[in-house]
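call fold(seq) -> tokens
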Amino acid sequence: WRQKAENFRYNVLAPLFGLHLNLAAAPDHTHPAGNAALMVILGLDDARQFEEIVAAHEAGRIPNCRVMWGSCPTRFDPSQAPPGRHAAFMWEKLPYRLRSDPKNWDAEKQRHGERMLALWSRHAPNLAAPGTVIDSFVQSPLDVERRLPNMRDGDLLIGAFSHGQVGYHRPFPGAGHYRTRIEGLYLCGSCCHPGGNVTGLPGHNAARVIAADLGLPDVAGARH
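ret:
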């Protein structure tokens, strides 16, 4: 198991960069559908840009073309911010080893956050108006790893969906049932099936296995 765990692979294309905004007003998109959507996706205007994005990740550079996705959740749930305020974020997948060294992000992340905000402002012009953005912060893939070490390399999905790391073989063959060889120790993170992306399902599945081992009622469908 130790050797298999050491061979676990992370995604080259899924390191996460985040731009987070404290706003005086919600983003007002020029296309009305943008204001009605919980999640918006910006960029990727041509399918051929996928090739540029993959090549940039493999070379450790920021792609020339943007593809970002994000939300202003307070538009739908005002309780997530003080009265009269909004919170919004935009995410982008960018290379972890920027120019071969992840520490290069410490000097680059603010500039890239500004580039992301500039693109968002093209679609929601009020974000560029004075006073709309009260405060902001960015998190590079390195920052993500620093804060959440299980997101190694800043990997949003916490493990590649390849090399025998899919389905029952996730995180590796022989460990797909959430149990380990140590009694009472279970795997419940997103290295397990069905993987990362903030679904909660790996933990839910592990809870069902634990309940079964303890002879407790099945927790399927339980509300938390």
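The chain has a mean pLDDT of 94.
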